[in-house]
Amino acid sequence: MNICEQPFYLASVRHGRGFEPLLKYEETFKVHSVFTHAINLVAGSDFLTILPLGRGCGRDCATVAVSGGFSFFTLDISPEDEVSMSASSRLWLGEKTVIDFSGSKGWRSPLEAVNCLHSIRDENMAILESALAAKCNDSVFSRGLELDVNRAQVGDGRVLEDIRRTLIEDDGEGLEKALAKIVGFGPGLTPSGDDLVVGISLARSILGRPWQSEGNIWEAGVRRNLDKTSDLSAFFIKQALEGSAHEIVERALACLLIGEPCETKDAVDRLLSVGATSGCDIGLGMYIALNWQRRYAWCSKGWR
């Protein structure tokens, strides 16, 4: 870089604990992909994401102080650019962009507040049901889907029923085959099938805490199918299996479980507005898992 050329300077506001190994020089990342409102970094199978402040944070995210209309394309960053830390808490992306982490604060998950769950509130489930019915008609999984919080019927052909049944019956092989029909299904970096699995997996991880053990046929079946999708989408699924996701997703689930109806509506509306169908598919996954939990104690099954 020419010494007279000033780098693009950004200030990090918050960062999740996934950034700590990078900030402590313990891992080496490179730029994976750049979008208008996101920069993804990669090291092996691990990803980190840089987002504008208004887009929320997460365990593996950092937010930077930029205006709402700012585009990361203006930063002259390209895939494969090197990422390096300097001694002054500055993260270099390539040769022309630096992010200052000296004043960045640690991010805390909204799901930390979910520590004792006795029941799932009818009012909050009704809010999610109504929002899905109104906003998510474009989701491939909503076609022919009947949502009724009282009768709790959920169906999309045979595949969702196979997923529900095989886990309850502790049929790991059958569950893996059913998941093979969903993981990687759909276009894009995060296909619709993957987003649905994220929603189910996150809800199952949080609701299944009292029964968690090393053996888990849901996690095993999902992980064995991750080679069917992109590395980035597989990473988001693995996050959900571990009980974490982007802040918007976590906040929606936390509100559904322990929030008041007013805040739940706001959180659900924000989730369902994410992407073309990603937020809807994640929300639908949450709805499926929560309904199955209410009917069959589904999130307590499949642990060994």
List the helices and strands and how they pair.
Blueprint: E1 8-15, H1 20-23, E2 30-35, E3 38-43, E4 46-52, E5 61-64, E6 83-85, E7 90-93, E8 97-100, E9 105-106, H2 122-135, H3 159-168, H4 172-179, H5 192-207, H6 217-223, H7 231-241, H8 247-258, H9 261-272, H10 278-296
Parallel strand pairs: 1-8, 1-9, 4-5
Antiparallel strand pairs: 1-5, 2-3, 3-4, 6-7, 7-8
Largest sheet: 9 strands, mixed
Shape: globular
- How many domains? The number is 2
Quote the distance from N terminus to C terminus: 56 Å
How would you characterize the overall build of this protein?
Strands 1, 2, 3, 4, 5, 6, 7, 8 and 9 form a 9-stranded mixed beta sheet that branches. About 3% of the residues have low confidence. It is built from 10 helices and 9 strands. Helix 2 runs antiparallel to helix 10, helix 4 packs across helix 6 and helix 9 packs across helix 10. A hairpin with a 3-residue loop joins strand 7 and strand 8. It is an alpha/beta fold. The chain is globular. The protein has 2 domains: 101 residues, no CATH class; 190 residues, no CATH class.
